[in-house]
TrEMBL record:
Residues 356-382, 505-533 are annotated as: Disordered. This is HAT C-terminal dimerisation domain-containing protein. It comes from Macrostomum lignano. PANTHER family: DUF4371 DOMAIN-CONTAINING PROTEIN, RAS-ASSOCIATING DOMAIN-CONTAINING PROTEIN. Residues 429-478 form the HAT C-terminal dimerisation domain. It comes from the Eukaryota. Residues 364-382 have a biased composition (Basic and acidic residues). One of its GO terms (molecular function) is protein dimerization activity.
């Protein structure tokens, strides 16, 4: 038995929790797991919680949403009018919810990035004396504008998007209905490697920003004043010292449609903030007010995320599943290592109570070491052990099903093993087949169950409170499992209804039985239900 929960006390409580009630029934074969998607969200939350500037960034995103999407439609209408005047796409601003998946935060950040020039222009218009907005709106718009014009805020915004895009992909893999523990350790290792790369290499959004914008540099002095000029080909270090002029959107060449990002405060203020941050040490919470330069914080942010990922996803918890990863299986060139590789299945089998009996293992060792035994007896002994069955299975797949083995090896663990489980020509021995089916059916995430509750809210809302439980169950089943609406065939159902019901639109208001019904519709109720889809 395997149970995956979101970590709530009603599920994991030691006294009356669901897990504690189920464990006595399942004995040692019980498998409990904290939802991988939830653990990823928790690791992100705790990694960012120690940095005050991350709290400021979230607060600014939600302040923009509140400013335009709450309390009054006048500000939103003003933003829509500005987008129409500038011929820009108008995107609905979103807020960041800590109880949502990481994809929700990525979406909120991406909307801000796409609407950056639009927001700067509109906020500038609102805070102008002749805008017609009240003083409170003007003051709020001025504060938001100051933050958005901060080059350090914008670079942190883009850097955070590059990080969350990597984490979003991993989260979506966890949320899939056919997610599996097989290959999870490898994906986790690749994710950490990709995050490590961002310490020294810029992600795609930072790269695009530096390539499309121009940075202001000092060319020299004249009459005691610095001579400044904007140049292309900016570097990461320019994010700490230079102002930037950026196009309004991709492919924009109009010099009038550009926005400027500035460094915050004076050099003395920035030096003070830097000293405060450096002296605070990693993991300390020091309110620095303004956003620090990207070079000062990128390594600390990445290290914090990696530490939390390793804390929530220990390597030992998932390494036993790697033996079933199709990418790691032997091939035709390494066929001689099949039975050595198959011994790695033993820890996984032991975890689910399918380990070999000691007598069987001793018999196998004795037969393999004795030259007096014939090959048939040795093979029978091999088939009695879980590792022997796995070795025979791999040998059969590599030699007798080489085409499918190579074709499905790169399509993921679920498709690989499901294909051969459904292939009748594959000879499956019972114990290894049972183990692989158990591993494939273990739920890696509770997202699918939570998705069902979301769909339920879409169906049973305030105006549909009289839906019968049976009807709700049917609607949920079709909505979640299909088939899609385009495959629905209403003709049979409509004709049957006309055949069995009375008409109310007959001349004179007389209720008459419908007679013009296709005579070919003579299916029984069971035939009718089977023909709906």
């Amino acid at each position: 038995m395997g149970v995956t929960t979101d970590g709530a006390s009603v599920m994991t409580g030691s006294r009356v929790g669901l897990i504690s009630q189920l464990r006595p029934w399942a004995s040692k074969q019980f498998f409990q797991h904290h939802c991988a998607a939830h653990k990823l969200e928790l690791s992100i939350y705790h990694a960012f919680a120690i940095f005050p500037f991350m709290q400021h960034l979230d607060k600014n995103i939600n302040s923009l949403h509140k400013f335009y999407m709450s309390h009054t439609v006048k500000r939103k209408a003003s933003l829509a009018q500005t987008s129409e005047a500038l011929n820009l796409v108008f995107y609905e601003l979103k807020r960041i919810y800590r109880i949502r998946w990481v994809a929700s935060e990525v979406s909120a950040l991406d909307v801000i990035r796409k609407s950056y020039y639009l927001l700067l222009t509109n906020l500038e218009n609102i805070k102008s004396p002749s805008s017609g907005f009240d003083d409170e709106s003007k003051a709020t718009a001025s504060g938001l504008l100051k933050t958005l014009q901060n080059v350090r805020y914008y670079s942190l915004h883009l850097f955070l998007m590059d990080i969350l895009k990597l984490l979003e992909f991993e989260s979506l893999q966890f949320q899939r209905a056919k997610g599996t523990f097989i290959g999870l350790q490898e994906r986790h290792t690749n994710l950490i490697h990709s995050l490590e790369t961002l310490k020294t290499n810029n992600g795609p959004r930072i790269v695009d920003f530096l390539a499309s914008c121009k940075c202001r540099r000092v060319l020299g002095t004249a009459d005691g004043y610095p001579q400044l000029e904007y140049h292309s080909g900016c570097h990461t270090r320019d994010l700490s010292y230079s102002n930037f002029a950026c196009p309004s959107g991709p492919g924009s060449s109009d010099p009038t449609e550009r926005f400027e990002l500035k460094q915050p405060g004076s050099a003395a203020d920035r030096s003070l903030r830097n000293r405060l941050f450096d002296a605070s040490g990693r993991g300390s919470v020091v309110d620095m007010g303004a956003y620090p330069a990207l070079d000062e914080i990128r390594s600390r942010i990445i290290d914090s995320i990696i530490d939390q990922l390793r804390n929530y996803f220990p390597e030992d918890d998932y390494s036993i599943f790697n033996v079933l990863n199709p990418v790691l299986l032997p091939n035709a060139e390494t066929l001689h290592t099949v039975f050595t590789y198959s011994s790695r299945i033993i820890p996984l089998a032991r975890r689910f109570g399918m380990e070999d009996d000691s007598s069987e293992s001793e018999t196998e060792d004795h037969l393999s070491d004795s030259d007096s035994r014939d090959a048939d007896a040795s093979e029978r002994a091999t088939e009695r052990t879980i590792s022997g069955q796995f070795g025979l299975l791999l040998k059969s797949l590599i030699t007798s099903h080489s085409v499918d083995f190579c074709a499905y090896k790169g399509k993921g663990p679920v498709k690989f093993w499901s294909h051969f489980l459904e292939t009748r020509t594959v000879e499956w021995l019972p114990r290894i087949k049972n183990l692989i089916m158990v591993v494939l059916t273990l739920p890696i995430s509770s997202a699918e169950a939570e998705r069902g509750f979301s769909i339920y809210k879409h169906i049973a809302y305030d105006r549909r409170t009289r839906l019968a439980p049976k009807t709700l169950e049917h609607l949920l089943r079709i909505r979640i499992n299909g088939p899609p609406l385009m495959k629905f065939k209403p003709d049979i159902y409509v004709n049957d209804w006309l055949k069995k019901h009375w008409r109310s639109d007959a001349p004179g208001g007389q209720r008459q039985k419908e007679s013009n019904v296709d005579e070919e519709i003579k299916d029984s109720d069971s035939d009718l239900l089977s023909g709906l889809f």
